[in-house]
């Protein structure tokens, strides 16, 4: 090939790749602009403060009511429940994998965890209906077990792979000299783990928890199928709840386009978007902290 | 003596949590396999639904999911790879580049249902594609994009600097180096990432809820501008929305099993490619 045409190709491809890079980077901006655009149409009609502070959600009634506080609390309730299960199990498993498991066992457990992460959410939601719901119904003596606890159990299963992988990376990244120093002054393995390794890996473990929470809050299908979908302020884990994601999934299919109700769902989405974005950014910040730590 | 006992207790607690995690996986796979195998047969995967979904097979849902997956891969993979090439091979380390990276990482954390809303507002309505196979495929493509970019970048990162320098020393331009040296040697890693991203997209339900999935279609044409049936959506409808949920439970179980098998097969393919390429590198 002639030199001139090679130079032309070089120039053209560099520009092309740059365009692709900027294009992919702007998807998030496009997404947020779309949400803001559609949510703005809703906030002309309803005051933002009423939207987040009232518990009455009745878009089809007259007069219609758009208060999403009970959904917000339901989302938090299910996510907190999921974390109560997933955090101890996840960190325990991560510590076991990083500190106790041999090479062979590790090579068996790692694919198992990747497999757990690969199972589609709708299949996990299905098992919530057919396995966990009858179990919970028997336990509480109610007609069905579709409630916040069911959703929390399923979400913990979905958040576990994320928590385990990130937490294990963090524990693995702790310099061996830390442990050697601890063993050197006579600490046992457990004392080293709980008083040296885990505190040193705290930023990474926090990142793991944050990414797990983000996953739990944003998950749609499992909570849609397993939590009973009743819009009311929940009083405990045995109440049926309806989260923000489930509300969007249920009502968007039925609502006529360009109505206040339609825009209201985008407003629920923008709140969800902001919550997950903030949680993920906190997680990213801590991932950055432990990555720096690793290099040192 | 006491200390020894305590040590066992401590070790046991970690072992217990690991066992619990494995137990979840075993329960999920065992329950689906044991109860789903009963009505799983060649007829089930090769016939159309009959009698209001209470008998017959799920062939249109399988074809729909396969086509959806192909569209997702065709739209997201080239874009994602080019973006990864830009970020890793061309981009200077400036605040703008860091912003692009941060934006892509955060895109990966956006809930899938919000991608569904974006698909509805952007593809279905603004671009007038309607609720169709193409809209849903593009939506899932956007969803997979950040995963493809991140894994491709990791694959590019593993290509040693020395062979890049070799290419430059022979007088290759930057693009020739990327095209002939870097991308070919990173290709197994890139393909692994694409398959994993696409297998995740194949199991997603929330983004296709409002962008084109349909419960039942008479005489499906499988063209790009039509609504379609998909396995995850079919499972959702069978297990919650069907008028006689108990009657179709065996079918729901088998659908779930087929879905899991499809997703796990895709995953196994990806792991095989990764394993094979790591072996080739070890011997080379």
TrEMBL record, chain A:
It is found in: Cell membrane. Keywords: Cell membrane, Membrane, Phosphate transport, Transmembrane, Transmembrane helix, Transport. It comes from the Bacteria. It is a multi-pass membrane protein. SUPFAM superfamilies: MetI-like. PROSITE patterns: ABC_TM1. The chain crosses the membrane at residues 21-46, 66-91, 112-132, 152-171, 192-217, 262-287. Residues 72-283 form the ABC transmembrane type-1 domain. Part of the binding-protein-dependent transport system for phosphate; probably responsible for the translocation of the substrate across the membrane. NCBIfam families: phosphate_pstC (TIGR02138). Belongs to the binding-protein-dependent transport system permease family. CysTW subfamily. This is Phosphate transport system permease protein. It comes from Mucilaginibacter aquariorum. The gene is pstC.
From TrEMBL, chain B:
Its main location: membrane. Keywords: Cell membrane, Membrane, Transmembrane, Transmembrane helix, Transport. The keyword Membrane applies. Residues 62-270 form the ABC transmembrane type-1 domain. InterPro entries: MetI-like, MetI-like_sf, Phosphate_PstA. It is found in: Cell membrane. The keyword Protease does not apply. It comes from the Bacteria. The chain crosses the membrane at residues 12-33, 58-87, 107-127, 133-150, 181-202, 251-273. It is a multi-pass membrane protein. PROSITE patterns: ABC_TM1. PANTHER family: PHOSPHATE TRANSPORT SYSTEM PERMEASE PROTEIN PSTA-RELATED (PTHR43470:SF3). Belongs to the binding-protein-dependent transport system permease family. CysTW subfamily. This is Phosphate transport system permease protein PstA.
